[in-house]
From TrEMBL:
Gene3D superfamilies: PucR C-terminal helix-turn-helix domain. It holds the Pfam family HTH_30. InterPro entries: CdaR-like_regulators, PucR_C-HTH_dom, PucR_C-HTH_sf. Residues 37-93 form the PucR C-terminal helix-turn-helix domain. This is PucR C-terminal helix-turn-helix domain-containing protein.
Amino acid sequence: MDVEARLRELSRSPDLSPFGEIVEPLLAYDRERRSDLIRTLRVYFASGANVSEAADRLFLHRNSMLYRLARVEKLTGLDLKDPRARLALQLGILFVGRHERRAEDEVEHP
C-alpha cells in the first residue's frame, strides 16, 4: 500500500475541511504573533507524540514544548492525550498543508 499517495489523495478531499477549521485558531495565532504552533504540532506528531524528541528537533527546552502544546490545547479546546483529538489535529494539518502549498505555488507562478 502506498500510504503517501493515499494521504495526498485524502488531502484533496473537501471532507477534510471541518478538520481545517479545527486548526484555524492555530493558524490565526501563528499569523498574529509570528509563532510556530502549526510547525510545533507537525514536529510533535512526526516524533510520535514524544515531547522530549519534538523539543530536541525544534531546539527547544522541554518546558517550552509543553507550553506550546498547552497553548494548542487552549486554542483548540482539544486534549492532546485523547487519540481522537490528535487524529483530528493531524487531519487538520494535512488539510491546511495542502492549501499552504497551493498558495505558495500561486505566488511563485502568477
